[in-house]
Amino acid sequence: MVYGFSRKFFLRVLLALVPAFVSVPVVHAAEDDVVVFAAASTSDAVSALGSAFEKRTGFPVIASFAGSGTLARQINEGAPADVFISANVSWMAYLDKSALLEQGSLVTIASNNLTLVASKDAKIPDPFNIENLPILLGAGRLAIGNPAHVPAGTYAKAALETLGLWDKVKENLVLLPNVRAVLALVDRGEAPFAIIYETDLRLAKNTQLAAVFPADSHPPISYAMAKIKGNDGHSTDLFYKFVQSREGQEILRQHGFLVFEN
Fold first, then answer.
1. How far apart, in whole angstroms, are the C-alpha atoms of residue 174 and residue 37?
2. Which of 109, 147, 206, 231 is deepest in the core (most CB within 10 A)?
3. Per the record's keyword annotation, is Signal included, yes or no (predicted)?
4. Which residues, listed in sequence order, are joined to residue 18 by a DSSP beta bridge?
5. Residues 175 and 206 in one domain
6. Calculated CA dihedral for residues 72, 78, 79, 82, nearest 10 degrees
7. Of the candidates 146, 112, 150, 121, which has an alpha carbon nearest to the alpha carbon of residue 210?
8. Both 57 and 129 in a single domain?
9. Which residues lie closer than 8 Å to 209 by C-beta, 6 or more apart?
10. 116 CB burial (10 A radius; 0-12, 13-18, 19+)
11. CATH for 207
12. Same domain, yes or no, for 66 and 148?
C-alpha cells in the first residue's frame, strides 16, 4: 500500500510506470473522474461505455486496460482505481480477500464465448473437429494468454484439459500477457493459431474462426464488476449503475458480449 501521496499524484506516477501493453490515457485525474481498471478484452466496449457515460453525466472516465491479473495486482498495491472489471471472478476473489472491494458491489455484467482462430492463410478442414487440434497444429505455434494471470488463458487451459488436449499441445504454446496481445500475434501472422474470445475476433483483420469451444469444456466466462473500497464517490456510483443499465448492457451487446436481461 502507498501512503503519503494524493490520489492525483499517485495516478500520474502509475500512468508513467505501467507496462507498455497496458493502454492508459496520459491524463490528470480530478476528484469526480471515474478511474476504471478493465480486462483487455473489454477495451472497446468500456471505451464506448465511458464515452456514453461522459455525454450523459459530464463525468470523464479514465480507463486502464490489461490482463485482469495484472490490474488486480496493481489495485492490491494501491493503484487508485474506482471500478474494476475482470474477465473472471477469481481476481475479484483475490481483491476481496484483501478487503479491497466495496461490500455488496460485486456483480456479473456479461459473458463471452471461447474460440480457436487461425491466420487467414491457414487451411482449416470443413468440418473441423476441435479434438483434432494437435494434427492441425503440427509443429505450428498456438498463442494463448498466460493462464497464470490472464483469464482467457485460464479458460483456454481448462478447455484444452477437459478435451484431453493440453498435454498434446503444451509444447506448441506461446504465452502472452493479455488476450489482445494474443490476437495481435495471430493477426500479424506470427502465430498460425490462437485461442481468444469471440468478441476479439470482431477486431481481427487477417484472422479466421476455426472453432468455438464447447461451453461445458471450461468454467463459465463471467465478466465481473465491483467498486473499490474507499473510492465509492457519486460519479463512481453513477458509472457502476450505468454499466448495468439497459443502455450500458446494450453497448456491451453491440460489442459482441453476451448480456443479461434487465
1. 25
2. 109
3. yes
4. none
5. yes
6. 80
7. 121
8. no
9. 115, 116, 117, 201
10. buried
11. 3.40.190.10
12. no
Same domain, yes or no: 141 and 177: yes
Nearest-angstrom CA–CA distance, 148 and 139: 24
Report whether 35 contacts 79 (CB < 8 A). Answer: no
**Cα dihedral sign for 39, 32, 254, 222?**
positive
Full residue range of the structural domain in which residue 86 is found: 7-111+222-254
39, 223 in Cβ contact below 8 A?
yes
How many domains does the structure of the chain reveal? 2
CB of 213 closer than 8 Å to CB of 114: yes
- Enclosing H/E stretch for 44: helix 43-57
Element of type H or E holding 240 = helix 234-244
Using pLDDT thresholds of 50, 70 and 90, give the confidence band for residue 262.
low
Q: Please state the pTM of the whole predicted model.
A: 0.84
pLDDT of 187: 96
Tell me the percentage of the chain whose pLDDT exceeds 90.
83
Calculate the alpha carbon distances from 89 to 32, 94, 146, 190 in Å: 27, 9, 17, 31
What pLDDT is stored for residue 30 in this prediction?
56
